[in-house]
Write a structure and sequence with these properties.
The structure is a single chain. This protein has seven helices and seven strands; from the N terminus they run αβααααβαββββαβ. The radius of gyration is 53 Å and the shape is globular. A hairpin with a 4-residue loop joins β4 and β5 (about 250-255). The protein has helices at about 1-90, 125-130, 130-145, 150-170, 180-190, 200-210, 270-275, and strands spanning about 110, 195-200, 215-220, 235-245, 250-255, 265, 290-295. It has two domains: about 1-90; about 105-295, Alpha-Beta Complex (Cathepsin B, Chain A), CATH 3.90.70.10. Strands 1, 2, 3, 4, 5, 6 and 7 form a seven-stranded antiparallel beta sheet that branches.
Length: about 300
């Protein structure tokens, strides 16, 4: 009987243990399930919070970018305005009666050696009486080479050019046209930095002088009204223009037709009206007025 009770007690205790274990396991799984639910809700809340933070950050970034960009633009605009103000303030206003600073208002003169076409006054000799073209070429080339020019050197050069022309044209000629003068200059002196320009105006001559060149022009010497010429003056003449005086509106020339021709000044209008080309030969009548010049550069 006592053994039976003992066995029954053991069975009951064992059942109680089984029931306890079952509820314990269920509670643990429940706890795990609850923990899983808690973690999911936490992650969900965290994701929501992160999205919210990100949205706030994006909105905040836009809010920062716009003012920052505007600030840069404003800064650049301010700088541009300040720079513009500085530039404007640095400009000196020019009065209406104040002359503009340019070569057109500046005395321009090239230092050209002077040579009268009859270096020793031998005007009675045809070789010198008609040597204005040869003298003009000689002066121009002495300027190109940077050489001085004595009367003796000038005389010898004139005579040498005359001999060259006599051979070239087949006879001695009093006058050489501007085209032939340029060709002789190129061939005799072996120099090509010369250019003939036609239909010129006063401004063309001045422009050539302003770039540092000198100019050779043919002219009706009688229209120059030079008081040093033996009346009525040469109908065919050639001279070197070495400068321009804007204040006097006068060309500064080396006129080989007189010993007083160094740096002689002709009114720009007087000289321009006198300019006319002529034919190669012995006083060939001029039919057409052709205003031309030779530009000589170094």
């Amino acid at each position: 009987m006592n053994a039976l009770k003992t066995r029954y007690s053991i069975i009951i205790a064992f059942n109680v243990l089984l029931v306890g274990l079952w509820f314990g396991v269920r509670g643990n799984y429940g706890g795990i399930h609850f923990a899983k639910n808690t973690s999911s809700e936490s992650l969900s809340k965290q994701n929501t919070a992160l999205k919210s933070d990100a949205a706030e950050q994006d909105n905040s970034q836009e809010a920062v970018d716009i003012p920052a960009k505007s600030a840069i633009e404003i800064t650049r605009t301010d700088t541009l305005v300040r720079d513009t103000e500085k530039t404007v303030s640095s400009i000196v206003p020019i009065k209406q009666d104040q002359p503009m600073l340019s070569l057109q208002n500046t005395l321009v003169v090239q230092e050209v050696p002077f040579l009268v076409q009859a270096p020793f006054g031998e005007w009675n000799k045809a070789a010198f009486q008609h040597a204005c073209e040869e003298a003009a070429m000689t002066m121009a080339m002495a300027w190109v080479k940077g050489e001085s020019l004595s009367p003796q050197q000038g005389k010898q050069t004139i005579e040498s050019i005359t001999k060259f022309e006599t051979k070239k044209f087949g006879k001695f000629v009093f006058d050489t046209s501007l085209q032939d003068t340029m060709e002789v200059m190129k061939e005799y002196f072996q120099y090509d930095t010369v250019e003939m320009k036609q239909n010129i105006r006063i401004t063309d001559i001045r422009s050539a002088l302003e770039i540092g060149a000198i100019v050779i022009v043919p002219a009706n010497g009688r229209a120059l009204h030079n008081p040093y010429f033996t009346a009525p003056g040469p109908a065919e003449h050639m001279l070197v223009i070495s400068g321009y005086d804007p204040e006097a509106k006068a060309f500064i020339v080396h006129d080989p037709g007189t010993k007083n021709g160094a740096g002689y000044r002709y009114d720009e209008s007087v000289l321009y009206e006198a300019i006319r080309d002529y034919m190669t030969g012995n006083h060939v009548p001029v039919k057409d007025i052709r205003k031309s010049m030779i530009v000589v550069r170094k």
